[in-house]
Sequence to fold (90 residues):
Amino acid sequence: MMTTRRSMVEEQLERRRIFITKGENKNLRVIKMLVVMTLFTMLLFVLLTPGVVLRIPKNGKLVHQAIVHGLVFAVVYHFTHKVVWAYFYR
Fold:
């Protein structure tokens, strides 16, 4: 059965519309994950700010406290960001 030129064009447009819609859903999901991970990082940073949850080393200089808390932040983020990503991405 031969299809007309108009029906072929309409079919192609329909395929593109479906493809674009699927792509938009994927892009929206990625944007949501980026927002979740940004909020997670912000929360972790605030909680690990010197004096909020812990103060290491006690009675130390401000520079030493900042260095230690930076390292604590890096270690905690390293071991938790993949878990958070996997939890919210599924």
Remarks:
- The mean pLDDT is 78.
- Residues 5-89 form one domain.
- The chain has one domain: 5-89.
